[in-house]
Amino acid sequence: MIDKNSLRRRFSASASSYDSYALVQKKMSQKLIGEVKAAAKKQSNLDVLEIGCGTGYLTGLLLRELENPKLHALDIAPGMIEESSKKFGKIVEFRCEDVESANFECEYDLIVSNATFQWLNEIESTFSKLTGCLKTGGLMTFSTFGEKNFWELNEAFKKARLEKNSFDGARLGQSFYSLPELKLMLERSAKSIGLKCKIKLEEKMEYEYFDSSKEFLHSIKKIGANSKSDMLTNSPGIIKRTMEIYDQSYREKEKIRASYHCIYVTVER
């Protein structure tokens, strides 16, 4: 279970550094905006909801690529809302709220979200709520991370635990859904509210390279995605050995590699 209070604090604290480190997330936004442009087909005055607007990178793309959108943007972290508000002011209606507890009184032509849905605790019920907020013919498109995310880090952790004969069910970092799992949950959520939706999913691996595992973990901290509560192990020795194995075993051209498993979803009502 993700601690939303901790999540809110971490992302607020990282608002000023997020843009400098969230390079993969920016690539994901570019992919999403392609889906948005194809769906919009030069329509104007679309009612748009962005979930997890963060510092406003995707928000800016939506304003640039859509013709006079009525844009509503939501984020759980007040620091992120403050950062986005500085850029866009009253052009966008911002809400500082958790999408899982938020109520939406209107319907939208487009719901879009980048690298946010991995932070949901009740993913199916949230899908149902959002799908129900789409107008007939509306589109929800979002990106999230899949189960191969940070593959190298997790493999190094497994090897460190084997060396230490540790079989206590510990894990390093949060877990992520696979593409088939997400597809099934989306289908169930639409069915639960009596809708037949066209659902499309695709996945792509992205990679970043760092001088060391320490530098990689620092970059994760700078975007607010780190959480001590996700590191379910009581052994500092295993963590230390994990980083040693990572630095030794997962190098390419003198850099360590970090894999990002990006999943893209479109739901058409």
- Helical segment tally? 10
Task: Kindly report the CATH topology of the domain at 4-149 and 176-207 and 261-268.
Answer: Rossmann fold
Distance between the termini: 30 Å
Mean pLDDT: 92
3D shape: globular
CATH architecture designation of the domain at 4-149 and 176-207 and 261-268: 3-Layer(aba) Sandwich
> What's the alpha carbon Rg, rounded to whole Å?
19 Å
Assign the CATH class of the domain at 4-149 and 176-207 and 261-268: Alpha Beta
CATH superfamily of the domain at 4-149 and 176-207 and 261-268: Vaccinia Virus protein VP39
The helical percent reads 40-55%
Please mark out the parts with pLDDT under 50 across 5 or more consecutive residues, or reply none: none
How is the biggest beta sheet arranged? 8 strands, mixed
Name the beta content range.
15-25%
What structural class is derived from the secondary structure elements?
alpha/beta
- The secondary-structure element order is HHHEHEHEEHEHEHEHEHEE
The tally of beta strands, per DSSP, is 10
Catalytic activity: malonyl-[ACP] + S-adenosyl-L-methionine = malonyl-[ACP] methyl ester + S-adenosyl-L-homocysteine
EC number: 2.1.1.197
Protein name: Malonyl-[acyl-carrier protein] O-methyltransferase
Function: Converts the free carboxyl group of a malonyl-thioester to its methyl ester by transfer of a methyl group from S-adenosyl-L-methionine (SAM). It allows to synthesize pimeloyl-ACP via the fatty acid synthetic pathway.
